[in-house]
Each structure stands twice: as structure tokens, then as C-alpha cells.
Amino acid sequence: MSTVAYGEAVAAFQHARIVTLPFEEVLTRLRQAIEAAGLWVLQEIDPQNVLQRGGHDIGPARQILFFHPDLMVRLLQANPAALLEAPLKLAVMQQPDRSVAVRWHDPATAFGRYSKPILTDMGQDLASRCEQIVTAIQEGG
């Protein structure tokens, strides 16, 4: 099995937080914070498991996809092309020093591209909720 080392993770269109909690604790707190923000966890992808099946080894990693059906209805009514922006996703990766990086795209930027006030407002609301979700993991869930 080949071990994959992470490269430098810098992207201007993303947000990131590094936390010193254990990986599984971060996942638990994120799930709780997503629900507390009025959103639903729709799916979790385990890149570690997927890559392992292909003969590669990485540290703990998850992608958490989340949204809400009511928001999806509003999005589709405003502009069906914006369907590509949902669901939202958090990438959670344990770093070599055992800290945990949480990364996400900026919904305000993504939804704002459609030049529709309802989508601009939705993007700003979701950006605020994402910030609350990630802040909550540091505050105890």
C-alpha cells in the first residue's frame, strides 16, 4: 500500500480552521452543529476508505455533505442552474501533527455568482451558518 502525503492546502476561495481536538470528536461536534444550524447531514464520504480500496493510505479524512430540503426548493425556484452549489460540504482531515483541518467553500461567493437576490441572500445566510458550525466545534458542540 502506498502512503499519500498531503501537500500544502491553500485556496483563496475556501475557508479553513485548524483545531486540536481528536478527529472523531471533531466529526461528532460538526454533525451536532450542522443539525443545530437547522441543516441536515445528507451523506458522509470516507476518502480514507476509498483510497485504501485502491491501494493507497492516507490519514483520517471525511467529507460531510449537508443542506436542507426547504433550501433546495427555494434554490430550484430561483435558478435550477444553482443546483450545482448544493449540498454544502465540509472537508475534515487529520494533519500529520494530529491537529484537524476543517475546510469549506464560501457559499456567499458560490450563490452570489447567480445575480439573483434570493440566491445572494441564501449564500450569505449559509456562509454565516457555516461559520457558526465550525465555530461551535471549538466551543464544545
Brief digest:
The chain is of the alpha+beta class. It has helices at residues 23-36, 47-53, 69-78, 107-112, 117-139, and strands at 2-3, 14-19, 40-45, 56-57, 61-67, 88-94, 100-105. Strand 6 (88-94) and strand 7 (100-105) form a beta hairpin.
Sequence-ordered SSE layout with sheet pairings:
Elements: E1 2-3, E2 14-19, H1 23-36, E3 40-45, H2 47-53, E4 56-57, E5 61-67, H3 69-78, E6 88-94, E7 100-105, H4 107-112, H5 117-139
Parallel strand pairs: 1-4
Antiparallel strand pairs: 2-7, 3-5, 5-6, 6-7
Helix pairs in contact: 1-5
Any descriptors?
141 residues, two-stranded parallel sheet, single chain, alpha+beta, 7 strands, 5 helices, five-stranded antiparallel β-sheet, TATA-Binding Protein, globular
- What portion of the residues fall into strands of 2 or more residues? 25-35%
Q: What structural class do you assign from the helix and strand content? A: alpha+beta
Summarize the amount of helix as a percent range: 40-55%
Give the SSE string.
EEHEHEEHEEHH
Indicate the CATH topology. TATA-Binding Protein
Largest sheet: 5 strands, antiparallel
Describe, in plain words, how this protein is organized in 3D:
The chain has 141 residues and is an alpha+beta fold. The protein has a single domain (15-139), classed as TATA-Binding Protein (2-Layer Sandwich), CATH 3.30.310. Helix content is 43%, strand content 26%. It has a 5-stranded antiparallel sheet. It has a two-stranded parallel ribbon with strand order 1-4. Helix 1 packs across helix 5. The longest helix has 23 residues, at 117-139. The radius of gyration is 16 Å and the shape is globular.
